[in-house]
Design goal:
Layout lengths: L1 H40 L6 H7 L1 E4 L19 E5 L2 E2 L6 H4 L11 H17 L4 H6 L1 H7 L4 H35 L5 H31 L3 H30 L5 H12 L11 H14 L11 H37 L5 H13 L3 H29 L27 H32 L4
Antiparallel strand pairs: 1-2, 2-3
């Protein structure tokens, strides 16, 4: 009972601390994004290409439910610098700016539910049958005509009800907190995510409850059952996740940043270099343009040659960067798939994947943000290149456009994936979790039906 009270206090504390952390981080990012947009729109009269190199910034907003499960957020970057000719990686993660304690894990509701709640269940259920056997009450119960399966079902139901009493208030607090964060009438997408998390955690706890009752029925002494259950907890929550991560790294190795940058630089030589008038591909592009407009020299063109060359080079380099980025993401996805499919061997990895996905703090949400930032960067760069091409014609490089040309460009906005977009990739983990719940229950009833535990 004392342990249950401690767990409830930890759940309550983790929700409050998660909400405060969310509020601070989101306010910081909103402020930084506002200043970035303000700086870009308040530039003086400048040449469009100088504006392109001045660039802007995209800050990733926090998911409304990330206060429940921080997931990968502390380890992934929060800001992307958007500039011409370059696709930059995200920087300034919490882990980079914090001490090493953050690597142990943040005290979030997910941490308590995934790691500590199973311990509570183990300490509640380890002597479910062993104590009855040691006290001699098991024979008394069975002498009343009650089957061992009925006793097991009653214990599973009773422990499930007790765990529900512990976690239900915490989920109610989480729902109310999510309403405060959204600051709007009930959000249906958020409701579906919370409901999926609730059902998934219910299945996860049921697995541990049923498994604990089963092991207690098979052990002669309480201490044996406790040691066996703690061993299972270590194996499922610590050992297997580490092994699958190592296996993923070994089977699908990712290139180093230096190797990837070198490959991109090498392949970029096959495209147009907008900063080199003597580049072979630039000359070929110029000749096609002269032929198109029926003129003899670049000075006779009705458009700015430099702007069109920059646009052509930007299109090539962006396509090249995106190709390498997609290959890198594909490698990470293959690594993650090992952990996803291992959910059929380990329910902890299934609930972890579901929880992060529904909280909006998994790898898929992060990649969606990076793609949105890159799309905005490319459109911004091409907008500026076309300003140079059609607003400046063939004027000198030091010619400036009026600042009004820059201060009306749309601000960066990010729309995270909807519930339905993240549900399908999570179906494997959800299916694995419920297969575990059904399988362990059937196994428990079948074993107790065929053996004598007196």
């Amino acid at each position: 009972m004392v342990f249950a009270i401690i767990i409830f206090i930890l759940l309550f504390t983790s929700i409050i601390s998660g909400y405060k952390s969310y509020s601070i981080l989101q306010a910081e990012r909103n402020l930084a994004q506002h200043h970035a947009e303000e700086d870009f729109h308040s530039q003086p009269d400048r040449h469009p290409h100088r504006v392109a190199h001045y660039g802007s910034y995209a800050f990733r907003p926090k998911s409304a439910l990330s206060f429940l499960d921080a997931g990968l957020d502390p380890y992934t970057g929060t800001m992307v610098y958007l500039e011409a000719h370059q696709q930059n990686s995200a920087n300034f993660s919490q882990a980079q700016q914090s001490n090493t304690l953050i690597r142990i894990g943040e005290m979030t509701m997910a941490f308590v539910m995934q790691w500590l709640m199973p311990l509570l269940i183990i300490f509640l259920c380890f002597n479910a049958f062993t104590q009855e056997r040691e006290n001699g009450t098991l024979k008394l119960l069975m002498s009343q005509g009650i089957s061992i399966q009925q006793i097991a079902k009653g214990k599973i139901m009773g422990f499930s009800l007790l765990i529900t009493i512990v976690i239900f208030p915490a989920f109610l607090i989480a729902i109310l907190t999510s309403l405060v964060i959204n600051n709007e009438p009930w959000n249906f997408d958020t409701a579906l995510r919370l409901f999926t998390m609730l059902l998934s955690y219910a299945a996860y706890f049921f697995i541990f409850i049923t498994g604990s009752v089963l092991i207690s029925s098979l052990c002669k002494q309480s201490k044996t059952a406790l040691i066996a259950l703690l061993g299972c907890w270590i194996f499922f929550c610590v050992v297997i996740p580490k092994l699958t991560v190592s296996l993923g790294d070994a089977l699908f190795q990712t290139p180093s940043k230096a190797a990837m940058d070198a490959a991109i630089h090498r392949q970029a030589k096959n495209g147009i270099n907008g900063h080199d008038d003597q580049d072979k591909r630039t000359k070929e592009f110029t000749e096609k343009l002269l032929k198109k407009y029926g003129v003899d020299s670049a000075s006779q063109l009705p458009v700015n040659l430099g702007g069109l060359v920059m646009a052509e080079g930007e299109a090539f380099s962006s396509k090249l960067y995106q190709k390498h980025f997609d290959e890198l993401v594909n490698t990470y996805e293959k690594q993650n798939n090992i952990s996803k499919w291992s959910g059929f061997l380990n329910p902890y990895q299934s609930i972890r994947a579901i929880s992060m996905s529904m909280a909006g703090s998994d790898f898929r949400h992060y990649v969606t943000f990076l793609n949105a930032a890159e799309s905005y960067r490319f459109k911004l760069a091409q907008h500026l290149n076309h300003l140079q091409a059609y607003k400046l014609a063939n004027k000198a490089k030091d010619t400036r456009l009026d600042k009004s040309e820059y201060n009306h460009y749309p601000e960066f906005s990010y729309n995270p994936p909807t519930f339905w977009q993240v549900l399908f990739p999570s179906l494997i983990s959800i299916f694995a979790l419920y297969i575990w719940a059904l399988g362990i229950y059937i196994l428990c009833i079948t074993i107790l039906k065929n053996i004598s535990i007196l």
